[in-house]
From TrEMBL:
Protein name per the record: Cupin type-1 domain-containing protein
GO MF term list: manganese ion binding
Family, similarity comment: Belongs to the germin family.
Chief localization: secreted
CDD domains: cupin_OxOx
Species lineage: Eukaryota, Fungi, Dikarya, Ascomycota, Pezizomycotina
Heme in keyword set: no
Region (Disordered), start-end ranges: 21-43, 75-96
GO cellular component, one term: extracellular region
Keyword terms, alphabetized: Manganese, Metal-binding, Secreted, Signal
Length: 256
């Protein structure tokens, strides 16, 4: 099943690079260039409960079929405009549109998920962890996108790749990893996940959200970090996609 998502990701890349990504529009207003495309459909908890309790796949897809046209319930729109509150986060560095069992319930019990990452020039998908899934990331557009991960204690050397268009990299389940667009042009990546609920834990933001005394002790009581201001410092850390390395920002004349 994981292979199915990878093949789908490759197909998406081929389509997206053949022509610009065109947001989905209502047929009644497709002639207007200023029309804002609709968001993905809102998902009710009742629908999720029905799908989870379905006895088998036939029952599950019968429930989905009853919701309306397949084009609505079996297709997920990764365009940023269709995801005002993206599951992968949104910030100065870009945004990540995540299709998982919550946002796209057709995935329930299929064991896969996917995301599209839209990175601004010098944008970074901050160091994070997917606690329940391995990620296979493929660069759809752009160049010089850098990835890196730390596996676990015992192997604490960063493993890094630099991706050009159509190249991909594996980011193991539970590893701390990031993506950084070290380029003055935007980049788009597609990621397949081996679990319909991969989860997302942003390392820096979450670490500094721990009890300040614990953070101070974990860092060895550094003189430069007064434990009384740790919680205030945590509030200043971006939640998700952020600007990347200052060298790139200076090179691309991006203010920070």
């Amino acid at each position: 099943m994981y292979a199915i998502v990878v093949h789908a990701a490759l197909a998406f890349i081929a389509i997206s690079t053949a022509s610009p990504i065109a947001p989905r529009q209502n047929s009644s207003s497709s002639t207007s260039s200023s029309t804002v495309p609709p968001s993905n459909p809102e998902i009710s908890q009742d629908l999720i409960n029905q799908l989870e309790l379905a006895a088998d796949s036939v029952d599950r897809f019968t429930i989905l079929q009853a919701q309306g046209p397949a084009d609505t319930w079996l297709k997920y729109d990764f365009n940023p405009s269709a995801n005002p509150n993206p599951g992968g986060g949104k910030g100065a560095g870009g945004q990540g549109d995540l299709a998982n069992r919550k946002t796209f319930p057709a995935l329930i019990n299929l064991g896969v998920a996917a995301s599209a990452g839209f990175m601004n020039p010098c944008g970074m998908n901050k160091p994070h962890i997917h606690p329940r899934a391995t990620e296979f990331l493929i660069l759809a557009t752009g160049a010089n996108v850098k990835t890196g991960f730390l596996l676990e204690n015992g192997l604490q050397t960063q493993m890094s790749t630099t991706l050009s268009q159509y190249q991909g990299a594996i980011l193991p389940q539970g590893s701390i990893h990031y993506e950084f667009n070290d380029n003055c042009e935007p980049a788009v990546f597609i990621a397949a996940f081996s679990n319909e609920d991969p989860g997302l834990s942003t390392v820096g933001k979450n670490f500094f959200s721990l009890d300040p005394d614990i953070v101070d002790a974990d860092l060895g009581f550094p003189d430069f970090l007064d434990h009384t201001n740790i919680r205030q410092f945590a509030q200043s850390i971006p939640k998700s996609f952020s600007n990347g390395a200052m060298e790139c920002l200076d090179r691309c004349h991006i203010k920070y």
